[in-house]
Amino acid sequence: MATVKGNGRKKRLWAEIKGYRQQYLMMTPTIIMVMMFGIYPLLYVLYYSFFKYDGFSEPLFIGLRNYVRLFQDSTYWNSVKNTLQMGVAIPLVQIPCSLLLAVLLNQKFRGQSLARAVIFVPNITSTAIMAIVFYFMFASYNGIINGVLMKLGVIDRAIEWFGNGMMAKTVIVLFCTWSGVGFYMVLFLSALQSIPSEVYESAKVDGANKVQTFFGITIPMMGSMFQTITALCIMNALKLFDSVKALTNGGPGNSTEVMTMYIYRYFFETMGTAQQGYASAVSILSTILVMVITLVYVRCTRKMNY
Amino acid sequence: MSKRVNHRRDMILLYTGLAIVIFLLIFPLIYAVGGSFKSTEEFLLGGMKIFPDIWHPENYTKAWKQANFARYTFNSVFFAAASVLGIIATTSMTGYTMSRCDFPGKRILTGTFGFMMFLIGAVTLFPIFQLCRKLGLLDSIWGMVITQIATAQPFYCILILGYCNGISKEIDEAARIDGASFFNVYTTIMLPIMKPILATTGILAFRDAWNNYMMPLAFTLSRSELRPLTVGVVLLKDQGDGVAAWSTMLAGTVMSIAPILVVYLFLNRYFIEGITAGAIKG
Fold first, then answer.
1. Judgement on whether residues B68 and B180 belong to the same structural domain of the protein
2. What pTM does this model have?
3. Can you list the pairs that A160-165 forms with residues at least 24 positions away whose Cβ atoms lie under 8 Å?
4. Smallest CA–CA separation between B134 and chain A, in Å?
5. What CATH fold (topology level) applies to the domain A67-304?
6. Residues B101 and B46 grouped into a single domain
């Protein structure tokens, strides 16, 4: 009886699938590509995380040993620490800046759309390429930043911007703010524009000042949009690669190395002595870390949803 | 009367604030352009000068000829153009279908898309690299093109899906009743209506491909003749010749940024609308 029922359901499903033949055909390129370039690589990484594998010779099953090594690998945890610092520092600078700009641009004034278009410009330029330009600007002996600061008398000796981890990280945060502020501003702007203007009118009637209106109405009314944008910002900061790679290449030492660079290095840069098995384990753990952090953030800020 | 004055003061503050912000944001670009015309000696002197005393346009010809930038530029253009065409062709079909039909497996597909957006790029890069090697795709730009198209699927499918949800279903249902097949409705009726979102997709996809760095870097580690501009320029920084190549490098920097700025100059509306639409859906 049960099998007959199962057969019937199978038949119905089959008929349904057949009815969508043309639709499936149209989606075939996407489905094949997602399977080959999305699902297969993930399974590959998961599988080889249990193997000792260098990409060429026979993989050797070693159980959880890659993961054990990973938990003892202080270089990895150093990169995790750096990633987390970036994940906190970058949004802390980026979000207020872009929110402030969005509030400014939400006013009606001449040249508003021009200003929006110009502020967005850094976002369309290549992160890797512009990181090089920042590298020149912050060069210690002949960079223009030191030049200006010395001329203004703010400092009397050239600052070694890439001399220690703290300074190098500051430059990375500045660079990320420069390249991302326009992007998040555009997002915030669309969130602000979704707030009905009557709300502001009534706040004005009630005698609220601008600061009160901002924290009492604007932020709560953006609700889930605010949460989505900040979550996106955090996630992007955790996934940082291009900017760090081109700006500091992890240096000085490995004081600015981030998780993505660590993964990349073990997969690609140790050619010959590459450790794909170990890199796979690093990948799995790092992916889980990014997901958990983002989800925890979303959870913790859920009460902001109205 | 006092309100008027207040308003005026606010406006002055607003314009001054925006002017400072815009100056800070545009400054690196101006600095790159100025530096690209300096001789290496002048550039190394440093100081506060943005533009050179003596202009050296030959930095550009040097970069174009000696540093292989002609090749890099061709690669970048080919890579970006082919990726854009591929992405538009595939995601418009999938996005439209997902918007209109409740086919079995739709939820799995949506879930996979969602998960793929979480992924760190570096994680799946190596298996993809191996896959392309086995398929013999690493000997040409096509390996990079296909990878670019494939990894862009989730974002653009969902972007187009969202746009199609906003188009009344009555339009295509009427055509279906008249006997047109699903595919015919897509090509003759929907594609023209979808033009704005296809333009947005094309532009954002162009930006992504043109600026992509990590994937082309890995794919061209041992194949310098396939490198796009981003990889070529950054590599100059890490190469041994060090400061000697700085002015060439800045010329390369400007050469790689200029094309996308020109595109943006004419089509910035689509960029910003695309970003907004994508965020609301995501």
1. yes
2. 0.88
3. A162/A135, A162/A138, A162/A248, A162/A251, A162/A252, A163/A252, A164/A252, A164/A255, A165/A252, A165/A253, A165/A255, A165/A256
4. 13
5. MetI-like fold (1.10.3720)
6. no
Q: Is B243 touching A (CB cutoff 8 A)?
A: no
Report the complex ipTM.
0.86
Spell out which residues of chain A touch residue B275, defining contact as CB-CB under 8 Å: 183, 186-187
Same domain, B172 and B37: no
Residues A206 and A203: their CA atoms lie apart, in Å, by 5
Q: List chain B pLDDT tens, one digit each, 282 residues.
A: 445 557 788 888 889 999 999 999 999 999 999 888 888 778 777 777 788 888 888 888 888 887 788 899 999 999 999 999 999 999 999 999 999 888 888 999 999 998 888 788 888 999 999 999 999 998 899 999 999 999 999 999 988 998 888 888 888 888 888 888 889 889 988 999 898 889 889 988 998 999 999 999 999 988 888 999 999 888 877 765 555 677 788 888 898 899 889 888 888 888 787 777 766 554
Per the CB < 8 Å rule, is B238 touching A259? Answer: no
Question: Exposure string (b/e) for A37-49, b if CB count within 10 Å is 16 or more?
Answer: bbeebbebbeebb
Interface A-B: count of C-beta contacts within 8 A: 269
User: Is the CB of residue A30 less than 8 Å away from at least one CB of chain B?
Assistant: yes
- Does the CB of B118 have a partner CB in chain A at under 8 Å? yes
B148 and B238 together in one domain: yes
Please enumerate in sequence order all residues whose Cβ is within 8 A of that of A128, keeping only pairs 6 or more positions apart, or say none.
Answer: A242, A243, A245, A246, B211, B213, B230, B231, B233, B234
Q: Do A264 and B149 touch (CB under 8 A)?
A: no
A118, A186 Cβ separation under 8 angstroms: no
